[in-house]
Amino acid sequence: MENLLELCSGRYCGRIKNESSGWSDCTACPVGYRSDDLKLCQKCVDSPDLYEWMYLGFMAMLPLTLNWLCILIYNHKWSSPAVIIQMVSSFFESFTAAILSLLIYEPRGSLTLLSCKVVQISDWYTVFFNPTIKYTTTVFCAQEAVYPLYSIVFLCYLFSLAMLVLLRPIAYSLLPKPSRNKLFTKTLYATLYFHPILVAVHAVCAGLLYYSYPYLTMFTTVLATVTYYVKCDAMTLKKILDKDLSKHIFAMVWHLLTLCAAAVSIIISTYTFLTWKNLLFLLCTPFPMIFFLLTERFSDPTNIAQEMDMMNRNTV
């Protein structure tokens, strides 16, 4: 019977099976379903692979990473109660949001997910593939073909924002009165601005991010680390060791772990299995930091200006 059905037009249109009337007309598949090769809506029963889990982890960690970066830049005293409480609070906000998001999606109450496999980049943008019958009638078949990789990120950001509103005032009340300064509110407002921006970026660029997030992670973590060390005036190994050593070491470890995660994602997308030979690429992750520390003095504007003055004096 299924083979006798006329195939639906459009890439993502499908037929829904009804117990009473059989197969429906061609339409969008329900949430949690996707049309197969016969254009029949089938329930998503696959499990996300490692690359997809790392993508979800990347999207969930974005608010936390941006929040921690703001906290470290705005607050110069690493061991102050304001810094510690803010970082702990932001971690629990993001962690709780991620756990709640996983528990809500099927199988409900579990930290696992049932998903549909991503086949191509158009799976993220089904709204652009609604077929037009005889150039007159449009069949709207927009659906979440990559369920739940698209919608779960929105839910995670919503929970993260809700946890921010609930937990950050409590964290502020735990601070000693002398530590309650404008820097605390600056990081709070920065985080409030980040969430709608991240939601907008995900809504438009989710498919592009899915395929490029390892490379974007490498680029942004190097850029963020350089920005951090420049803002903190710790651009040489001597300055890193002189003051705020634990703060700089934390930023460096976070930088290396992020680069390692990005490298693993690239390896997974390139090779079928992880082997010890593939993982040797992880040995390259310290190179950007080493290169920055070794070459910073050659690009420091102050040093360049001093060298130019010396050249001018020698010429005269």
UniProtKB/TrEMBL annotation:
GO molecular function: ubiquitin protein ligase binding
Presence of the UniProt keyword Membrane in the record: yes
Membrane spanning residue stretches: 53-75, 82-105, 147-167, 188-209, 215-232, 253-273, 279-295
Domain of life per record: Eukaryota
GO cellular component: membrane
Keywords in alphabetical order: Membrane, Transmembrane, Transmembrane helix
A Pfam family annotated for this UniProt entry: JAMP
GO BP terms in the entry: ERAD pathway; response to unfolded protein
InterPro entries named among the record's database cross-references: JAMP
Name of the protein described by the UniProt record: JNK1/MAPK8-associated membrane protein
Gene: LOC100184136
